[in-house]
């Protein structure tokens, strides 16, 4: 098969491209960075250097493909804190839709997110609902699988500074860069040995490895499925208390705790650090929607997938390596 992958050599796209190449498919990876061309070619794929804002480029690259994997890049809140995530999602997804129609592609796998089933009560993640809605405007003969992964393991790196006892927003730019996933805002000022957010403690959370996401996307791209569906992807479900213990043990702090604070405390902390009110409200609501199997998980628990292979203890080894290198 001829398969097009967006997302350059990111956490998901790189292992996805590698797997598809190893299976004998002709893979083209889209990247906006010319410096990535050599790395893309090194894994056996073809590089297409251009912007997803350029519909003509996308349409030309998509033409002749059997399947296309699409994703939205991290929004640049660090450059524009007042960015409207919903409108940005609408704009970029509309580019994909136009390119897909112009190219004649009939199979699309789109990276969405848990929470994309609604635009109410899920805060920032409502932009995924918008993106799915725009993608559904494609003609009925275009098959679409919406991949809805849960919280990424690597979002837990956002807690590293506070686990070290180094305070709040040393990694604030990193926070902005990963706002498109959930579980991001546990960087509140606290005592050494605590993770703090407006969810936590006994709240049960599903988490996923990008490797398991890539494997699931690969299955969908080469499948014979026709129609429209959403597929959730998860690796393991744990309480926040269990997560804290696993990460803490890995870094030599088995006493590490995950403490839940109020929504007001969360919002006040974000505003204290000059985050725009709309964005602060979205993040606070997004986190709150995860408590006690809340709104974020209501459709997930109706469609629980088979768990992936990579577990929290596997990720904890990576977490510890990064932790000890700083």
TrEMBL record:
Domain of life per record: Bacteria
InterPro entries in alphabetical order: Ergot_Alk_Oxidoreductase, NAD(P)-bd_dom, NAD(P)-bd_dom_sf
Span of domain NAD(P)-binding: 7-123
Gene3D superfamilies: NAD(P)-binding Rossmann-like Domain (3.40.50.720), UDP-galactose 4-epimerase, domain 1 (3.90.25.10)
Protein name, UniProt field: NAD-dependent dehydratase
Classification lineage: Bacteria, Pseudomonadati, Bacteroidota, Flavobacteriia, Flavobacteriales
């Amino acid at each position: 098969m001829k398969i097009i992958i967006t997302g350059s050599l990111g956490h998901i796209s790189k292992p996805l491209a590698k797997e598809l190449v190893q299976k004998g498919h002709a893979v083209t990876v889209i990247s906006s960075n010319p410096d990535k061309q050599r790395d893309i070619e090194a894994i056996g794929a073809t590089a297409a250097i251009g912007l997803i804002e350029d519909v003509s480029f996308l349409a030309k690259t998509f033409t002749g493909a059997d399947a296309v994997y699409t994703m939205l890049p991290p929004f640049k809140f660090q450059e524009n804190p007042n960015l409207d995530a919903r409108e940005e999602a609408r704009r970029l997804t509309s580019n994909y839709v136009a390119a897909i129609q112009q190219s004649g592609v009939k199979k699309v796998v789109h990276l969405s997110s848990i929470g994309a089933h609604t635009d109410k009560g899920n805060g920032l993640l409502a932009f995924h609902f918008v993106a799915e809605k725009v993608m559904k405007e494609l003609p009925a003969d275009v098959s679409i699988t919406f991949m809805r992964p849960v919280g990424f393991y690597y979002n837990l790196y956002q807690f590293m500074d506070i686990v070290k006892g180094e305070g709040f927003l040393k990694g604030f730019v990193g926070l902005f860069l990963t706002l498109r996933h959930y579980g991001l805002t546990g960087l509140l000022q606290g005592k050494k040995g605590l993770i703090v957010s407006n969810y936590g403690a006994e709240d049960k959370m599903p988490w996923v490895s990008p490797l398991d996401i890539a494997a699931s996307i690969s299955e969908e791209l080469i499948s014979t499925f026709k129609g429209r569906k959403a597929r959730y992807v998860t690796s393991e479900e744990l309480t926040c208390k269990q997560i804290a213990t696993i990460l803490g043990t890995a870094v030599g702090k088995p006493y590490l705790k995950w403490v839940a604070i109020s929504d007001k405390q969360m919002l006040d902390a974000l505003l204290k650090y000059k985050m725009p009110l709309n964005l602060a409200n979205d993040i606070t609501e997004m986190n709150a929607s995860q408590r006690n199997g809340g709104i974020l998980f209501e459709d997930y628990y109706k469609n629980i997938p088979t768990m992936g292979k990579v577990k929290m203890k596997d990720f904890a080894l990576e977490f510890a390596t990064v932790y000890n290198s700083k």
